[in-house]
């Protein structure tokens, strides 16, 4: 019991005194995970749209592949990226292993199939007649994309939330390709793992609370936008 | 014979597949300028596919489509698509305000920006939905949604208007008023139209020519009156609501005079060809009422056959024509069709 109370007290002190290490790791986490989310959404949503709308051979197989990717264990994604970026690997010459870029790449590998699958589902749930109606109005590809994306906006927001949730919560891949280097690739999740292994539960709990708060704030913002959109339907 | 340039739309040697299934296959269909054509057929007969192919929204597997004499190809399909406007069975509106639905559509068609707003409100007013201009689609009734969809189609000032089952999703009161407005808008002008329907009464109101589509094949095509009075096959006769009977069985029961047409195997007639007279000793007996093309029909049992007869709802409620009553059955032989 003392352990828990001590940890909570230490957490309170760290957060109230504005511990610089916590905030620098938080900022780094936001930058890395934010970048991963934006890139994943750009690629994943585009892929999802193509999977849902474009008729091509093998589409069903690709949708299945994307759905499978939704459940991809982060360590597998990390392993794949580590092999590719390892100094003796095919892209070793780029010297990306143990850098924030490597972490972003591995997080994208985790999130893109998730975003693609949810996006594809959102577009597929729109009635076929909507697509035909938009084309009958004379819309080109770009106009069709924007009009359909607006109609599927709730699903797209869910996809973005899911992508962010996946990248901010994963630890295996970040540890494997980032190396948890202090001041460079250490983010809230990897820092928490390290602190727990060292028995520093107070600081670990503080990191955990910041992580939770961050996810909560993002979820509140996206949910508010989603509710606003839903009210307008 | 007219050349394809004299038609608003001409389709020849058309085959359309949806997936692996062949859904349409016909030699020729022409829509004259200013002509109003109804495509009738049962569910699954290929009516909607016909409209989508004619509207250049699905490709035909083979065949040639021309708009105003211009052959449609992959490269010009989008340009010619802009000559037509389609209103679907279940009105498809964007999740925007009603007026924005029209404005977006007009913008996509390249209308001048300064004319868009005025044009949108003008057509909403003509279709009687200007009061809901700022509402969202989910706030509208079925009739209002259909009117907005039609207003959008007309606002595009198409040369060819295509309507897919325009009255399916609306109640009878709205149906009557919308059909009246539609009739006024599409007949007597330059606008050519195709109305897809399974309801013969809609075809009668909105078209002067009819195409009968059965299992993706055109079974009969011609002026409305010709098709209704002279169906060319048993399938067409059934589709347009005729009663089809074996000639030899019907001849005696219905007291068909003369032997001139006795060699035909089958006869058909519309339910309006049969009239009923209250008669306690009559050979026919009313066994039930059914809703049918054009209103209510009384089903009369006569020598083991079930014969439908058009009857007004008012008459159907009278004691003389209640279920179980005996009646005399009189056939208007001028309406008989021998098949």
Your description of this structure?
The complex is a heterodimer of chains A (233) and B (339). Chain A has 233 residues and is mainly α. Chain A has a single domain, classed as MetI-like (MetI-like fold, Orthogonal Bundle). Helices cover 79% and strands 0% of the residues of chain A. The mean pLDDT of chain A is 89. Chain B starts with 6 loop residues before the first strand and ends with a strand. Helix content of chain B is 29%, strand content 32%. In chain B, strands 6-7-8-3-9-10 form a 6-stranded mixed sheet, with helices on both faces. With 339 residues, chain B is of the alpha+beta class. In chain B, α3 packs across α4 (113-126), α3 runs parallel beside α5 and α4 crosses α5. Chain B has helices at residues 47-54, 77-81, 98-108, 113-126, 142-155, 172-186, 200-206, 224-229, 234-239, 247-253, 313-316; strands at residues 7-18, 21-32, 36-40, 62-67, 70-71, 84-87, 160-164, 192-197, 209-214, 217-223, 243-246, 266-269, 274-278, 284-292, 295-302, 305-311, 326-331, 337-338. Chain B folds into 2 domains: 4-238, P-loop containing nucleotide triphosphate hydrolases (Rossmann fold); 241-338, no CATH class. The chains are: A mainly alpha (233), B alpha+beta (339). Chain A binds chain B through residues 127, 129-130, 132-140, 143, 147, 150-151, 232-233, and chain B through 52, 55, 57, 78, 81-82, 84-86, 88-90, 92, 94-95, 104-105, 108-110, 136, 138, 156.
Question: Which key features would you list for this structure?
Answer:
heterodimer; A: 233 residues; mainly alpha; MetI-like fold; B: 339 residues; alpha+beta; Rossmann fold; six-stranded mixed sheet; five-stranded antiparallel sheet; 18 strands; 29% helix
């Amino acid at each position: 019991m003392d352990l828990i109370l001590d940890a909570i007290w230490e957490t309170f002190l760290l957060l109230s005194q504005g511990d610089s290490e916590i905030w620098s790791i938080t900022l780094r986490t936001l930058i890395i995970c934010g970048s991963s989310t934006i890139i994943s959404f750009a690629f994943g949503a585009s892929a999802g749209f193509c999977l849902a709308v474009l008729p091509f051979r093998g589409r069903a197989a690709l949708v299945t592949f994307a759905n499978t990717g939704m459940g991809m264990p982060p360590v597998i994604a990390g392993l794949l990226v580590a092999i590719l970026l390892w100094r003796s690997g095919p892209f070793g010459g780029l010297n990306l292993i143990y850098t924030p870029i490597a972490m972003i790449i591995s997080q994208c590998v985790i999130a893109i199939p998730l975003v693609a699958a949810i996006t594809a589902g959102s577009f597929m749930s729109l009635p076929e007649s909507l697509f035909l109606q938009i084309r009958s109005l004379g819309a080109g590809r770009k106009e069709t994309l924007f009009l359909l994306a607006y109609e599927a906006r709730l699903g797209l927001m869910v996809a973005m939330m899911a992508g962010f949730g996946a990248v901010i919560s994963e630890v295996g891949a970040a540890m494997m390709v980032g190396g948890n280097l202090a001041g460079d690739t250490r983010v809230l999740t990897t820092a928490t793992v390290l602190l727990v292994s060292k028995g520093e539960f107070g600081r670990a709990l503080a990191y955990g609370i910041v992580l939770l708060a961050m996810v909560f704030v993002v979820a509140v913002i996206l949910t508010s936008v989603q509710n606003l959109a839903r009210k307008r339907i | 014979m007219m050349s394809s340039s004299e038609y608003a739309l001409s389709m020849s040697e058309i085959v359309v597949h949806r997936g692996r299934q062949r859904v349409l296959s016909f030699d020729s269909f022409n829509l004259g300028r200013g002509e109003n054509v109804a495509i009738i057929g049962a569910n699954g007969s290929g009516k909607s596919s016909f409209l989508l192919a004619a509207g250049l929204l699905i490709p035909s597997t083979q065949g040639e489509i021309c708009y105003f004499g211009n052959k449609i190809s992959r490269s010009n399909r989008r340009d010619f698509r802009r000559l037509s406007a389609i209103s679907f069975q279940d009105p498809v509106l964007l999740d925007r305000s009603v007026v924005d639905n029209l404005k977006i559509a007009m913008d996509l068609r390249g209308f001048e920006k300064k004319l868009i707003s005025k044009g949108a409100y003008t057509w909403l007013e003509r279709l009687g939905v200007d009061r809901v201009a700022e509402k969202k689609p989910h706030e509208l009734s079925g009739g209002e949604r259909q009117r907005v969809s039609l207003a959008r189609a007309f606002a595009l000032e198409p040369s060819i208007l295509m309507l897919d089952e325009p009255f399916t999703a609306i109640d009878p009161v709205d149906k009557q008023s919308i059909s009246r407005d539609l009739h006024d808008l599409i007949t007597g002008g330059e606008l050519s139209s195709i109305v897809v329907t399974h309801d013969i009464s809609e075809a009668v109101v909105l078209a002067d020519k009819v195409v009968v589509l059965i299992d993706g094949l055109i079974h009969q095509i011609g002026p409305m009156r010709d098709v209704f009075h002279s169906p060319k096959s048993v399938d067409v006769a059934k589709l347009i609501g005729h009663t089809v009977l074996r000639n030899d069985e019907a001849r005696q029961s219905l007291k068909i005079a003369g032997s001139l047409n006795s060699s035909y195997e089958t006869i058909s007639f519309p339910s309006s060809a049969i009239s009923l007279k209250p008669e306690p000793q009559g050979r026919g007996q009313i066994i039930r009422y059914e809703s049918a093309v054009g209103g209510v029909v009384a089903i009369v049992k006569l020598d083991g056959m079930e014969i439908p007869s058009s009857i007004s709802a008012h008459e159907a409620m009278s004691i003389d024509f209640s279920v179980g009553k005996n009646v005399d059955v009189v056939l208007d032989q001028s309406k008989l069709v021998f098949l």
